[in-house]
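User: I would dearly like some help making sense of a protein record. This is the protein in question:
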Amino acid sequence: MTMKKTIGMLSILALVGAMTAGSPSQVGTVISFAQEKVTTIDLGEYFFKADGKDLKQTSLVIPVELKKVDEEEVEAEDIELVFDNSKAAVEHEIMSPLFTAVDMMRVEILDKSDNVIAEMESSAVHEILLKVGWKAHVIFKVGHTIVESLDDGAKLDFEISCHVGHKAGGQANDHYKAGMRGTIELVKKS
């Protein structure tokens, strides 16, 4: 195995380990992929795009449906995203404070042939590493504080970014400094 493949496998194992480290009360929780409400975010060399729009210039607005559980409690529907790095020529490390503001997150990493190569579930994800050609299918529920804020009419912005710094053409490049960042805005679905 080459050094590059070994490092790639270690990155996935670290990601799987970090994402499966939840509290015992979360063991056995299953979040299913619904497929009908999926938002795809395309990754390019230094950009995130959704519906052809650069997320550095316009926010990706996700209307979140809130459901009344009982007289006092409201919960949010699942949010489903696909991060598609199949057309990019470089790997990306996707980070967002939104990933740590969830009750539970499930991630499937798919290779170039759409085969699932890793699955994980956790209550806090710090980053998702995507090699060239890979996709991440992500589903999550936002936490109680976010649900309360949305129910009160708040619009919540979360930065999404890539912090990979790699060498290209002999010069160091930092994806974030090159502009690979954007905004995901959560709003209450009306």
Q: What stands out?
A: The first strand starts at residue 38 and ends at 43.
